[in-house]
Design goal:
The chain is α/β, with parallel strands linked by helices and 352 residues long. It contains 14 helices and 11 strands. It folds into 4 domains: 62 residues, no CATH class; 63 residues, no CATH class; 127 residues, 5'-nuclease (Rossmann fold, 3-Layer(aba) Sandwich); 70 residues, OB fold (Dihydrolipoamide Acetyltransferase, E2P) (Beta Barrel), CATH 2.40.50.
Length: 352
């Protein structure tokens, strides 16, 4: 016999007994002259109604609340759970101090208000302790501040796009990333799913991401950790990353524009590899001379296009005639766009 059926039968039995007792007292409450329906009529009627109600409603008042409470407790940090219990105790102590004066109130107020005060004060105290747990413990000197925790163990979250991009491995070798890089299990699963894709391009990108992770695990000085922590109530990967970043109080390293915007809106710091690449590009001012190789035609007539060593595009006016040749170019203007930096110039001394 299943647990659900046992609960239904127990609830049915308890409520049927209660309904029987209620049916026994019911005729006394009926107005004079009301039909009685025979001996035991109301007892059997109320027992049947209450028993049926207990059988149907038993899971809704037992199993469903239990599962909901169990899920919340599993995902609630131990500190928050402890602070909630402390809050309930503090609320009950305050309610006990108020119980005596409240019970002296006349009539129904004196009977009801002590219980209402206990429920309200316990709820408010528990909620306050859970929501402000870190501040309260820091005030009491039982925990250190967030800045100290961050200095003790600095962590960053890596998302799928930055792993596939691959430049994170080179950045780690330079030592610019301090602390531990955490790859949530959901990101690893997304990489595996991409690596198993039927599309050749997606499959190659996924395999490249897995290779980058393997390279980071073997690299000296790079601390990489695969985390099994999950946020089951959130389905999309970006949402899970943002929630984990909030829980860990750490930034996210990403190249994903949408994740960047969503994270910033929710107060999560974002480290964007593309923004870093643009920031470290050499500063070029109008009037400077650059050595460029023209490799393709520009959009406008006569233009030639080349690239600097850092990947910056340089458009050379009247540079088409220097196709596949090196030329000295004088910078005329620098344009910063969403896609990156573009440099415009013109040949200085002709073909070399």
């Amino acid at each position: 016999m299943s647990i659900v059926l046992m609960l239904r039968l127990c609830a049915m039995l308890v409520l049927a007994v209660g309904g029987w007792q209620l049916g026994k007292a019911l005729p006394a409450w009926l107005p004079a002259g009301a039909p009685t329906g025979g001996v035991g009529y109301y007892q059997w009627l109320m027992a049947a109604v209450c028993g049926a109600l207990g059988f149907v409603a038993a899971p809704a008042v037992t199993i469903i609340p239990y599962r909901t409470l169990r899920t919340r407790l599993l995902h609630m940090p131990a500190r928050a759970l402890l602070m909630g219990v402390v809050g309930v105790l503090i609320g009950l102590v305050i309610a006990a101090l108020l119980a005596l004066p409240l019970s002296l109130l006349p009539g129904l107020l004196g009977d009801v208000l002590p219980f209402v005060a206990a429920v309200v004060l316990a709820s408010v105290a528990a909620t306050t302790m859970v929501l402000r747990d870190r501040d309260i413990l820091a005030l009491l000197g039982l925990v250190v501040s967030r800045d100290v925790v961050r200095r003790k163990r600095s962590v960053v979250l890596l998302d799928t796009s930055v792993i596939i991009d691959g430049r994170i491995a080179d950045i780690c070798q330079t030592g610019f990333i301090q602390g531990t890089m955490i790859v949530p299990h959901v990101v690893l699963e997304e990489l595996r799913h991409i690596a198993d894709s039927a599309d050749v391009l997606r499959r190659n990108r996924g395999r490249r991401g897995l290779e980058i992770l393997n390279r980071l695990q073997k690299a000296d000085g790079a601390l990489l950790e695969i985390s099994e922590v999950d946020v089951p109530e959130i389905r999309d990967v970006d949402g899970k990353l943002v929630r984990l970043a909030q829980d860990l109080d750490c930034p996210i390293i990403t190249n994903d524009y949408n994740l960047n915007r969503v994270a910033e809106l929710q107060g999560v710091r974002v480290l964007n590899i593309n923004e870093l690449a643009n920031a470290v590009k050499a500063v070029v001012l109008p009037g400077e001379t650059l050595h460029v190789r023209i490799i393709q035609e520009g959009k406008e007539a006569g233009q030639g296009v080349g690239y600097l060593d850092d990947g910056t595009m340089i458009v050379v006016e009247d540079g088409r005639r220097y196709m596949d040749s090196d030329v000295e170019v004088v910078v005329t203007r620098v344009l910063q766009t969403v896609a990156g930096r573009m440099i415009f110039g013109q040949p200085q001394n002709g073909r070399r």
